[in-house]
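Entry 12.
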Amino acid sequence: MRYKYDLQIMKIKNNPFYFSLITLLFLSCNNNAEITFLIKNESDIHFDSSFLSVQHKTFTLPTIKPKSSIYFNTHRNAINTNNHDVTILCTFINSNRKDTLNGIDYTDLSGYPKDKYTITISSNKTVVIY
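Predicted 3D structure (tokens):
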């Protein structure tokens, strides 16, 4: 009986249809996971407009007040990955436009974004993404 069961498993493993189906199921479950961005504004600047770009997919963020934090979540399947690198760009714009700050994070050879990122706008007007 054990031998017959092993043969059935071997047939499933060697069948390209079943292999493709299981791979597709695994990848679709992985792509539904959320990516969380914590944006911390440690400066005294009020940002009226903020944009976050992940792999050329741009999101508009809500207003960010001085000395405050916000969370932004998106699904992995909303982002087009290239299986090679990940680029994250962010822009924070003040209404007077003299305090426009930019940040960039580039990761080579990873292919997929991490589950969580922290973006910090420091008091000396620099943007750090980690």
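Annotation: The first strand starts at residue 34 and ends at 41. The mean pLDDT is 82.
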